[in-house]
Design brief:
The chain is 81% helix and 0% strand. The protein is built from ten helices and no strands. Helix 1 (5-27) crosses helix 3 (45-51).
Length: 212
């Protein structure tokens, strides 16, 4: 049993987030409402507004938690891939990011939040703060790659992280277009270029040619 008001509020917040996530997966973003979230969580609307200022506020938190958890997983992959080659690790990262981008509930949520941020200046500030957090964790992922594999990135890790987040968001919204490059190939090409892998391979090719 919760021991104080703060713990009770924390549990309520988690229940509301879990209910919203389940509703998005089952019904889609457009179908959920504050009332349905509260009913699924077994909480009142008063409890909802004690934790979130609006449905959009909850959805931004939900998206941020999802991205932080996924990037944390990607960073573990990098740390645990000490015996793998850089190419193998990049393929694993690209495939995982492509898989997440293809999940309809998250791609639709990403689109809805970005459109709402365009229409609402106050919400845009909240959304941008969340994006800044996402940029930071993507930056940390790039820093892990640079350190583990002694890479020479073509841009500062933060700028690569921002570019990776933008590309990942874009692939989430692209859908399945017949002539589009598969998501994982696009992400892998970005990783290779931004971490200096193409430059390293190009230089190795030149050395090999000179030694013939």
């Amino acid at each position: 049993m919760p021991t104080n008001r703060k713990e009770t509020q924390r549990q309520t917040r988690e229940k509301l987030l879990e209910a919203a996530h389940a509703s998005i997966v089952q019904e889609g973003v457009a179908s959920i409402s504050i009332r349905s979230i509260c009913a699924a969580a077994g909480r009142t609307q008063g409890a909802f507004y004690s934790n979130f200022s609006s449905k959009d506020d909850l959805l931004v938190d939900l998206m941020e938690i999802h991205i932080l958890e996924e990037v944390s997983l990607l960073r573990r992959i990098v740390h645990e891939a000490a015996s793998d080659t850089i190419e193998e690790t990049l393929c694993i990262l690209a495939e995982r990011l492509a898989y997440i981008a293809a999940e309809p509930e998250w791609s639709l949520l990403s689109i809805e939040l970005q459109l709402h941020a365009r229409r609402d200046e106050a919400f845009a500030k909240r959304h941008n703060a969340t994006k800044a957090t996402c940029y930071r964790v993507f930056c940390e992922l790039i820093e892990d790659l640079v350190e583990n594999y002694d890479l020479l990135p073509t841009l500062p890790p933060l700028q690569i992280g921002i570019g990776l987040y933008a590309l990942w968001s874009g692939t989430a919204m692209q859908g399945d277009v017949a002539q589009a490059m598969p998501r994982e190939q696009m992400l892998l090409a970005f990783f290779r270029a931004m971490t200096g892998l193409h430059t390293m391979q190009h230089g190795s090719d030149h050395i090999a040619e000179a030694e013939k």
